[in-house]
Design brief:
The protein has helices spanning 7-19, 24-35, 43-52, 75-85, 126-137, and strands spanning 21-23, 55-60, 63-68, 91-96, 103-108, 113-121, 143-149, 164-170, 173-177. With 179 residues, the protein is of the alpha+beta class. The strands form 2 sheets. The protein has a 6-stranded mixed beta sheet, with helices on both faces. Strands 1-3-2 form a 3-stranded antiparallel beta sheet.
């Protein structure tokens, strides 16, 4: 028997189909943004999805990772989604991308429209990522590459000529840096 899902649950399912794993607070922010609401939580909706659907919640710090029952958490996607959320309400669309790019999203402001790429950079992969980005994006002024770092020290090992920023996930949220 298929589970009946309301509009919120359908959107949560769409997000999980796209990204596999997200935190409950990320899903709440996405639902509130899409439906122009200020729900305090979505716990009842996600609990129902876990009970009657093929979903699971796994404790993660003070939050929960929400995913399909057979899924392994993808922490790069979770971190990349936080970067995208930091651009709300300017985000027009977002989607998962092929590695090494974790996520693409498009922002629109009165001044300009930009495609943003979030690339998680694991320690030791800086030169490989730099070569990939230099090959693909050095001559594209409409794309902004956001290198999602594990440590601030990685900045010195990334050498590119494209339009880029650095980001770190901190205890206060997403922090952005320039060289």
């Amino acid at each position: 028997i298929a589970m009946y899902m309301n509009a919120f649950q359908q959107y949560i399912a769409e997000l999980l189909d796209e990204y596999d794993t997200l935190l409950s607070r990320q899903l709440l922010a996405a639902v509130n943004f899409k439906f122009k609401l200020e729900l305090p939580n979505i716990d009842g909706y996600t609990m129902q999805m876990c009970r009657y659907g093929d979903y699971a919640k796994v404790a993660h710090g003070g939050d929960f990772i929400f995913c399909r029952k057979s899924c392994e958490p993808d922490y790069d996607i979770i971190r990349a989604f936080d970067v995208m959320l930091s651009f709300q309400p300017k985000v027009v669309w977002h989607r998962r991308s092929r590695e090494p790019v974790a996520m693409r999203f498009f922002i629109s402001t009165l001044k300009h429209d930009k495609e943003m790429l979030v690339i998680p950079v694991r320690q030791g992969s800086e030169y490989k990522i730099s070569a990939y980005v230099a090959d693909k994006f050095d001559n594209d002024p409409c794309v902004v590459v956001i290198f999602l770092l594990e440590t601030k020290e990685q900045i010195q090992r990334i050498r590119v000529e494209c339009n880029y920023r650095f980001a770190l996930i901190t205890s206060n949220g997403v922090a952005f840096f320039k060289r």
